[in-house]
């Protein structure tokens, strides 16, 4: 067996405890099998897995750098190896969460799993849109003697389906700043929307990795946003990291790392702009299609109305004709009757 001497100054980046039976699995994970983090902190450097630790840190920094273009006040980023709903579970002392209603199970289940008391805020109808009831959020906060201590956060949503529209996160953020309560945005697909990102003034942003960075499902990103009216962002990521039980899988951070190295910020922005243009094209095409249908329907209705009018005229004419015929027949009968009477009298 040949012994390869380690050159002076080199630093090993392999996995000291990772054992993988299948070569296919080993290749799939690039031999990064030990995972990330340590037993008390998912974001901690793991001496036994320098390669995974380095990849994880670089992934977090790449995402942070990318988002800083749109959110200059972003404070910290961590990629977690589970989907968005699980990433919302954060369980400090406060037990209440204010949640503008969204009829989707994931977010609600994440809060219930964390044994939080969910205060559901029903939405209001604005025209044909279902939107955030800001007054109800404020009035609910006012029912607490010490909302800063009792309310864990307000969780709003930016990714939803019509007629529900994204929550008014800008105004919710102002309310949370006023009451000094964290504002967590369930932002599953939201990194693709510039209008949403430009409205953000929250404590925490929680998008997923698969929809925003085109990688397999399984990861989510938690971002802390610095705000002059609160101090939550300073320790949010470290506090969140420290409650994760044990080490974590490197797959999600590694997928993002590889993708962003290939994509780069220019291509990322190009894809978002292309998506925005596609949306405008889709909207115009849909409007044109509806206009065509409505015009044809109007034309058909006018034709039907004309046909109905003609039919009505024909019916009236037929009724008049029948009435005249009956009248003539009755007159003839009366005439015949009179003639018969005259003959009999004679």
From TrEMBL:
- InterPro entries documented for this protein: PyrdxlP-dep_Trfase, PyrdxlP-dep_Trfase_major, Sec-tRNA_Se_transferase, SepSecS/SepCysS
Which SUPFAM superfamilies is this protein grouped with?
Answer: PLP-dependent transferases
As stated in the Swiss-Prot or TrEMBL entry, residues carrying the post-translational modification N6-(pyridoxal phosphate)lysine are: 211
Chain positions covered by the region annotation Disordered: 297-346
Instruction: Report any Pfam family annotated for this entry.
Output: SepSecS
* Compositional bias segments (type: Basic and acidic residues): 318-346
- List of residues binding substrate: 38-39, 46, 247
Reactions performed catalytically:
O-phospho-L-seryl-tRNA(Sec) + selenophosphate + H2O = L-selenocysteinyl-tRNA(Sec) + 2 phosphate
Q: Does the keyword Transit peptide apply?
A: no
Q: In which pathway does it act?
A: Aminoacyl-tRNA biosynthesis; selenocysteinyl-tRNA(Sec) biosynthesis; selenocysteinyl-tRNA(Sec) from L-seryl-tRNA(Sec) (archaeal/eukaryal route): step 2/2
Where pyridoxal 5'-phosphate binds, per the record, is at 16
EC assignment: 2.9.1.2
Q: Which GO terms of type biological process are on file?
A: conversion of seryl-tRNAsec to selenocys-tRNAsec; selenocysteine incorporation
Q: Which GO terms describe its molecular function?
A: O-phosphoseryl-tRNA(Sec) selenium transferase activity; tRNA binding
Please name the Gene3D superfamilies in this protein's record: Type I PLP-dependent aspartate aminotransferase-like (Major domain) (3.40.640.10)
Q: Where is this site: May act as a substrate filter by repelling compounds with a negatively charged alpha-carboxylate?
A: 15
The protein's UniProt keywords, in alphabetical order, are: Protein biosynthesis, Pyridoxal phosphate, RNA-binding, Selenium, Transferase, tRNA-binding
Q: Which cofactor does it need?
A: pyridoxal 5'-phosphate
Tell me yes or no: is Membrane among this UniProt entry's keywords. no
Q: What does this protein do?
A: Converts O-phosphoseryl-tRNA(Sec) to selenocysteinyl-tRNA(Sec) required for selenoprotein biosynthesis.
- Family membership, please give it: Belongs to the SepSecS family.
Q: What is this protein called?
A: O-phosphoseryl-tRNA(Sec) selenium transferase
């Amino acid at each position: 067996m040949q012994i390869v001497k380690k050159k002076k100054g080199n630093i090993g980046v392999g996995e000291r405890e990772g054992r993988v039976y299948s070569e296919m699995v080993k290749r799939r994970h690039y031999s990064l099998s030990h995972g990330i983090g340590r037993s008390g902190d998912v974001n901690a450097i793991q001496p036994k897995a320098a390669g995974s630790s380095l990849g994880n840190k670089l992934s977090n920094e790449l995402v942070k750098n990318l988002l800083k273009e749109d959110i200059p006040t972003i404070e910290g980023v961590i990629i977690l190896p589970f989907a968005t709903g699980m990433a919302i579970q954060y369980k400090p002392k406060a037990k209440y969460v204010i949640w503008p209603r969204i009829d989707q199970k994931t977010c609600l289940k994440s809060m219930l799993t964390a044994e939080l008391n969910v205060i559901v805020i029903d939405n209001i109808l604005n025209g044909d849109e279902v939107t955030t009831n800001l007054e109800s959020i404020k009035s609910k906060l006012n029912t607490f003697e010490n909302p800063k201590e009792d309310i864990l956060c307000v969780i709003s949503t930016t990714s939803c389906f019509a007629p529900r529209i994204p929550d008014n996160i800008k105004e919710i953020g102002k309310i949370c700043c006023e009451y000094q309560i964290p504002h967590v945005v369930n932002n599953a697909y939201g990194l693709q929307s510039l209008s949403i990102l430009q409205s953000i003034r929250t404590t925490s942003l929680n998008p997923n990795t698969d929809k925003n960075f085109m990688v397999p499902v399984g990861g989510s990103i938690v971002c802390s946003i610095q705000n002059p009216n609160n101090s939550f962002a300073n320790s949010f990521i470290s506090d969140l990291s420290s409650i994760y039980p044990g080490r974590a899988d490197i797959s999600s951070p590694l997928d993002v790392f590889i993708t962003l190295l290939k994509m780069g910020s220019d291509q990322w922005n190009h894809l978002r702009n292309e998506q925005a243009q596609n949306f405008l094209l889709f909207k115009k095409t849909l409007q044109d299609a509806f206009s065509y249908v409505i015009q044809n329907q109007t034309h058909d209705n006018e034709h039907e109305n004309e046909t109905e009018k003609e039919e009505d005229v024909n019916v009236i004419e037929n009724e008049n004709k029948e009435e005249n015929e009956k009248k003539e027949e009755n007159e003839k009968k009366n005439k015949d009757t009179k003639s018969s009477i005259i003959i009999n009298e004679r």
